[in-house]
Amino acid sequence: MKKKNVFLKNKTFLIFGFFAILIFIVAVFAPVFSGGIDPTEGDLAKAILPPGDGHIFGTDKMGRDIFARVIYGARISLSASFSVVIIVAIVGTFLGILCGYFGGAVDAVIMRIADMMIAFPGLVLAMAVAGILGASIRNAVIAISIVTWPKYARLARSLVMKIRNRDYVAAAIVTGSKTPYILMRYMLPNTLPTIVITAATDIGSMMLELAALSFLGMGATAPAAEWGLMLSEGRAYMQSAPWLMIYPGLAIFITVVVFNMLGDSLRDILDPKNE
Amino acid sequence: MKQKMKKMMTLGLAVTVAAAALSGCGESKAPSEGTASGSEQAAEGEKVLKFGCQMYSDGLIDPAAQINCAWNAMRYGITEALFKFDDNMNVVPWLAESYEVSDDHKTWTIKLKDGIKFSDGCEMTASKVKASLDRVRAEGPNGSSTPEKFLEYEAEVVADDAANTITIKTNTAYIDLTGNLAHPVMAIVDVEDIKDWDNGVIGTGPYMVDSFKEQVGYDLLKNTNYREDVPYDKVELLYMGDASAKAMALQNGQVDLVENITNVSDIQKLQNDENFTVDIASGVRTGFAWINQAGVLGNDTLRKAMLMAIDYKTICQSNTIGGLYTPGYSVLPSSLDYGYDTLQNPYEYDPEAAMKLMDDAGIVDTDGDGIRELDGKNINLTVVSYENRLLNDFADAQSQYLAKVGIGTTAKYGSSDDQWTSLVAGEYDLNQNNWTTVATGDPIDYLANWYSKCDSDYCAYENAEYDKLYEQLLEEMDGDKRRELITRMQQVLIDDAAVLVDGYYNSSMIYSKNVAYAHIHTADYYWLSTEIIPAD
C-alpha cells in the first residue's frame, strides 16, 4: 500500500509515465494513427510537398507521407532502444556479478575487456563496429550494446563486492548453498534496483545514439521509417524544405525528453537514499 | 601608423610581384604552406575570385598521379592541353595551332601556337611539349592516370623546335588522337622546372599556384605570362564537399562562384533569387545502374519487367531530381550526336504490363509476402550506390517503384570505393554510378563496358551482335559509319534491357552578383577560365 503511494505521489512520474504510455500506444497502433497510409509507399510526382493538403507534415523526397513515417518511426526507435537497454542490462549485470563474486582471474579478464571498451568514445567505437558489421538497425543495436555493457558490468560488480563478504553470504556458503543459488538469491536482488534505475535513465540516450548511427548511415537503411535516417535524408533540404527535418527532429526530442524525465523520476522514487 | 604599415605592405607586394615578373623562366617557387590568409594580403583594387568547389583526390594536381589530379589541374585553370573540347564535344586546337595526320592514322604532326609561355615565364617549346608527353607516360605505371589509354607507351614523340611542331608516331592507328590529347591527363606541363609535383605543377593556364592549404584549398595567382588578359588577380579556391554548404557559402557571400550544387531544392532556390545566376549545361555524363547478369537479373523476363516498372521520366522530373538530370533510356546522352532520336525503347513505363510479363513467366508471389519468387526464392535485389550526383536518390526511387510490382530490394549504400569494389567483385544486382561517356570525345572506351571480351564488362553482359559491332567500331575510321555503329550498339543494349539508365547529368555553375559571367562547359574539365569575369 505504501509503495503505491510513492508512485502516485510523484507528479513528474505520473505525467511522463502517461506520455510514455501514449508513445507506446502510438507505436503499437501505428496503422490506426497514420490513417492506414503505408510509410514506405511514395509517389515521386508528389515529392517534397509542404505540409497541408492531405499530408499534414508534408512529403519527403520520395513522395512519402512524413506524418505516417514519424508515427511508424516510433516502432523502430522504441523497439531498438529497449532492445539495447535490455541486452546491456542483462549482459552487463551478469558479467558484473561474476566479476564481483568470483574476483581474481575472472574479474581481471572481464574488467580489462570492459576497460578496453571504455577507453574509446562510445559513439566512435559504435561507428567502427557498425561500419564493420554493415548498416542495419540490428547491427546498430549490437554495436551500441557492445560499447555500453561495461557501464552495467562495473556497476553490478561494485554492488556485488559491497556485499560479497557480508556474514549472511558466508552463512549461505557454510550452510551449503550452491553458487548459482547465491548469485540469484543474494547477489542479483542487491544489484537490481540500481541497474533498473540506470537502465530507465539510459533509454533516452540510447535512442539518441541509435538515431545518430542512422543519421550517419550506419543504422537503419532506406526505405525504413526511422527518425535518424529521416533527419539524414532531409538534411540537404534544410533551407528549402525544413519540414523534412523538423518533424522527425521533434519526434526524437519529445520521446527522448519523456523517457529521460521518466527515468529521472523513477530514480527519485526508487533511490534508497530518498527513503 | 596603420596607414604607413599598409603603404609599406602594398609597396612590398608590388616589389615582390615585379621581382617575380622580372625573374623570368625557371625561377619557379614551391607553393608556400599558406601562413597568412589570402584576403589579408589582398591589396586595394585587386580583383579576387572566391570559388567554392568539391575536393577530389586531396587536391593534388600532378596529371600523372591520378585521373582526378589531372582533372584538378585543368579545372583550376593551371594546366592546358594541346586540344580542347567545345560545348558540342568537338575537338578544337588549344595550345596547338593545327595538325596533320597521315593516311594510316599513325603519324600525327602537330603545329604549336607561337609565343605560349608557362606560368614561370619559360617558353613552351616543342621540346618542352615532348618532355611533358614523355614524362606522363614514363610516370604512368607509378600512378593511376592510365596515360597509355590516351597515347600508347610505344608512341614516339619527335620535337622540332625550329618549326615549332611535334610529330607523334604510333604503332596502332588512332581514330582521332587529338581527342585523346585533349584529355586532362595529357596536359602540357613544364617538366624541367616543377619542384613540387603534388601541389606546385606549372602549366600554361591563366592561373598559377601561390599556396596550398591541406583540406582548405588553393590560393591561385594570375599567370602574368598568359597570352590573354586574365580577369582576376587572384583566385581563392575553397574546398566544400557538401552541396548545402556550397549553397550557403554562396548566399552569405563567403564565395562568389561554386560548381555543381547537387541539391535540387538549393539550386531551385538560387534560380529564383535574382542575386544569383545559375548556369546549367547538359553534360556528357550518364547516371546508370549496372545490371549484374551473373545474378538473378540474368533472367531476361525479370530484367525487362524491372525496366518497365520504373518511371524514369517522373523520377527525373520530380522535385528530388528535377533539372539536374535529363530523362533518357540509352547509355549515351540524348544531347550527343549518336542518334538518340532514332532509338526505340520497348520498355517504357508500364507497371501493369510489367506485372503481367512476370505473371506469365511464372514469377509470382506464392507465399503472400508481397515479393515475387524466382526459382522458389524471393527476389531481393542488392542495390549498391554511393553519395554522388543524387545516385542514392535514384536508387531509393527505383526501389520504391520495384516494390510496387513485387520486386524486393536491399540498399547497400557506401563510399565510392565500396561501390567500385562491389562492382569489380560482381557482388551486386544493381550498381549505381555516373560516367563521363565521351572522355576523349568518343564513346568507345565507355561502350567497352558491355563488350564481353573486355575486362571492364563488370556485369557479365554478353551479346554476339554487340561484340561484333564493337570490333567493327575499333577498326572504323569514318565518322558517319562510326555514328551508325554506335547507334546500333545503343539499340542492342536497350533491346536486351542491359542497363538501367537513370538519366543524363547536367552540370552547373552558380555565381553571385560579384561575377559578371561564368559558364559551365559540356566537358567538365574546364572550371576556371578567362571567361569568368568580375562585375565592375
Q: Judging from the principal axes of the Cα atoms, what is the shape of chain A?
A: elongated
The largest pleated sheet of chain A is described as: none
* Tally of helical runs of chain B: 15
The helix content of chain B, as a percent range, equals 25-40%
Provide keyphrases for this structure:
heterodimer, A: 275 residues, elongated, B: 536 residues, alpha+beta, D-Maltodextrin-Binding Protein, domain 2, Dipeptide-binding Protein, domain 3, 21 strands, 22% strand, globular
Description of the molecule:
The complex is a heterodimer of chains A (275) and B (536). The mean pLDDT of chain A is 90. Chain A is mainly alpha-helical. The radius of gyration of chain A is 22 Å and the shape is elongated. In chain A, helix 9 (179-215) packs antiparallel against helix 11 and helix 10 runs antiparallel to helix 11. The longest helix of chain A has 37 residues, at 66-102. Chain A is 74% helix and 0% strand. Chain A has eleven helices and no strands. In chain B, a hairpin with a 3-residue loop joins strand 8 (207-213) and strand 9. Mean pLDDT of chain B is 89; it is low at 17-23 and 34-41. Chain B has 15 helices and 21 strands. Chain B has helices spanning 2-23, 38-41, 67-75, 126-139, 177-181, 243-251, 264-271, 300-309, 312-317, 351-360, 391-404, 416-425, 444-447, 464-475, 479-495, and strands spanning 48-53, 83-85, 91-93, 96-101, 107-112, 156-160, 165-169, 207-213, 217-222, 234-239, 257-259, 276-291, 325-326, 373-374, 377-378, 380-386, 408-414, 430-436, 499-512, 515-517, 533-534. Chain B has two domains: 48-237, 3-Layer(aba) Sandwich (D-Maltodextrin-Binding Protein, domain 2), CATH 3.40.190; 284-506, Dipeptide-binding Protein, Domain 3 (Dipeptide-binding Protein, domain 3, Roll). Chain B is globular. In chain B, strands 1, 8, 9, 10, 11, 12, 13, 16, 17, 18 and 19 form an eleven-stranded mixed beta sheet that branches. Chain B has a four-stranded antiparallel beta sheet with strand order 4-5-7-6, with helices on one face. Chain B is 29% helix and 22% strand. Chain B has 536 residues and is α+β, with helices and mostly antiparallel strands. The chains are: A mainly alpha (275), B alpha+beta (536).
